[in-house]
Amino acid sequence: MACPFCPPGTPVSAAVLALHCCTAASLAALAAGLGGVVAGLDGPLHEQSSWVMAAGAGAYVVIAASVRARTAPRAGRWLLVGVLPALALCAVVAATADSESAVRQVWLITASIAWLSAAELLVRRRRATPDAADGAGT
């Protein structure tokens, strides 16, 4: 059986299963943080919920970046355009955990994951369209 996101011929191994486990753990941390933030919407916000939410989202971004860097040729542009801004948004949530509203924190985390996904789509679209500079358009 071949690994669906690895180079062709790569067998499913313990490393892929470990990556899946880490991804599931980061999403569980994100969900736990979101649950704590949503539960505290009408009361005082617990700083730990924001930290857990930001750490879960940040871990997910790092895992996605490592998989993308491993499986895609020339992932440098995506790392700069997609990963760094997404990690910066997660860091903003962590840094402002005690002063920012819960709703704003949730939207910042949502924006970080959306930014990561949008950057991937833009890089794929750009790679699929021929450049005029290469002479393909003439």
Characteristic terms for this protein:
about 70% helix, about 140 residues, mainly alpha
Number of helical regions: 4
In oligomeric terms, what are we looking at? single chain
Mean of the pLDDT scores? 79
Order of helices and strands: HHHH
The beta-strand count equals: 0
**CA gyration radius, whole angstroms:** 18 Å
Looking at the structure, what is the overall shape?
globular
Counting helices, strands and paired strands, the structural category is mainly alpha
Question: Into which percentage range does the β-strand content fall?
Answer: under 5%
Task: List unreliable stretches of 5+ residues.
Answer: none
Share of residues in helices: over 70%
Give the CA-CA distance, first to last residue.
43 Å
Q: How would you characterize the largest beta sheet?
A: none
Q: What would your notes on this structure say?
A:
This protein is mostly helical and 138 residues long. Helices cover 71% and strands 0% of the residues. It is globular. The mean pLDDT is 79.
